[in-house]
Records
---
Amino acid sequence: MVLWFTKTDDYVFNLDAVRVPQKYPQKKHFKGPKKGELSGHPLGKNPSDVWEIPNVKSNHVEKTEHPCQFPIELVERLVLALSKAGDWVLDPFLGVGSTAIAALMHHRKAIGSEVVPLYNRITKERIRQAKKGQLRIRPMERSIYDPDSKGKVMPPKYVEIHPVRQQLDFFSLLEKKD
Ligand SMILES: C[S@@+](CC[C@H](N)C(=O)[O-])C[C@H]1O[C@@H](n2cnc3c(N)ncnc32)[C@H](O)[C@@H]1O
């Protein structure tokens, strides 16, 4: 369950960044002043209340030694919708850094805490791989596996993050905790 709180009405909500494909993208108004125009938003629809995202089990491309890590695409949707480039994203229970990776991928600054040194080491290794363009994740655009679907399955994608100041801050925080 995701709970979203804001301190004031002046909050960030980037709907366009997280729209999902319409079921019938070509559907048009068939009468009225908008007759012939697309009835849905051309960029997709608002994600519904139930998000279908596979959990990270043994055959998931992101699986590490952590027993309950988040899929990066889950955090990615939250980061994109609820923060702006340059914002800080805090995960006080960082695990193996899925939130930090999602934040750094999208030009946010990452901060977090984690009590288990092994998980901090895995986070650092994942970020190191991402910086070299070698960390693979399940793309958030990929739909849930459907055995009846004849379409091609979207392959895992490589994360790209760039060596900017905030990542150095992130590393030095982790180094102090280890
Ligand atoms: C559900 S896991 C988070 C997994 C993370 N979202 C990921 O994708 O890797 C919760 C994490 O919180 C850590 N944790 C528990 N108590 C903590 C505390 N007091 N301070 C910091 N981390 C803590 C656990 O070691 C565990 O790795």
---
Amino acid sequence: MAAAIRQGRRKRRAECETGGLLFGKRDDALRVIWVDDVIGPPPDSVCSPEKFVCGIKGTQEATKKRKEQSRGSMEFVGMWHTHPQDVPLPSTTDLSGMAQILASGEAPPLRSLLVIVGWEHDGILLGTSVFNRGLFRGGNGIVGVAINHFPGLKT
Ligand SMILES: [Zn+2]
């Protein structure tokens, strides 16, 4: 994640959001999502100071590759992106993006993870939200949100 953020700063203005996909394992019975691998923005992503719209180019191949390498245990578990100028909490754009993920594909996941990276003067803030497909009707779908502060950690 840090490498993708640094690469984004070299390519674009520092205030532009960037992001990508999270891969790992999801255990709905234990209500745990493990993140084992991360990729940066697909080439057709939109990175601006206002928003990050994750592209889809190469994402199916990236997912397939990880699934094969892990003999089926690693899968797509969610998304990550940065909020360089805002708190690391989901925006309305983020909520609709997660609703879309939980409704798309042949077998949409029951839960999906959204990790948002933000900054404090002395370190980074990680905002982690778990979304539940069933709760999007009439609500925002969030079942858990946590913001963790990591003083001294830089990207
Ligand atoms: Zn966002």
